[in-house]
Amino acid sequence: MTQQPTSSPSPNEPGQVHEHLPGRFVGVVVRDTTRSNGYLFLRGADGTEYFSHRASWFDAPLFVTIMLGEAVSFRVTRTSKGLRAWDVRAPTVDEAPAVSELTEAIAAAQANEHRVEELRDQTPRGKRQRQQGDDHGNR
Question: Model-level pTM greater than 0.85?
């Protein structure tokens, strides 16, 4: 039997209903632009980004010490402002295979991104852009 999403009223947005998606998700920390304000962004295995607030982390010290690229496990709620991660914690042993697949996929994507940049630099346009950048840097 497939679990269905559940809903609950939003305490912070009167009249809004949040949809809680079933199951746990595995992702990595991808943006840390506002940690001092209590926010981090996570990316799931499917590439979706999730907003997370310090108050939604099960393990508060983990929020302070976690680094970009580290894996976490979380639940998801769909709100009027987008997808939010909650009950964020370190992955369990049972989630290790999903974490391993995720980190391998991220490493492959980063390697591919790096290779694309190398190939772009080898094109005539890329060489001109690189030369222009060098010229501007030497002034």
Answer: no
